[in-house]
Amino acid sequence: MAAFSLFSLVANKEAGVQDLSLDQIRQLYDGRITNWSEIGGADMPVRLVSRAPDSGTRRTFQQQLLDGRREREQLR
């Protein structure tokens, strides 16, 4: 048996970032990075958008990428 989990994260082109590391993704989702300029992008605030809190995809994302932690409260 094999399992495969795939997530695509998309940043607005104007944010000016590409190829985020796992650590950067975790910092974005826990609120330690709040401006794209902190990771080499444009000077503009980070605005995260995700699936509904009760989504299975979101729960899997939290488990697999965020070490089981929930995202910061400001998530839309």
TrEMBL record:
A Pfam family recorded for this sequence: PBP_like_2
Renumbered residue ranges of the record's region Disordered: 51-76
Keywords assigned: Signal
Annotated ranges, domain PBP: 3-68
Keyword Signal: yes
Comp. bias regions, Basic and acidic residues: 67-76
Keyword Ubl conjugation in annotation: no
Classification via SUPFAM superfamilies: Periplasmic binding protein-like II (SSF53850)
InterPro entries according to UniProt: PBP_domain, Phosphate_ABC_transporter
Protein name: Substrate-binding domain-containing protein
Source organism of the structure: Pseudonocardia aurantiaca
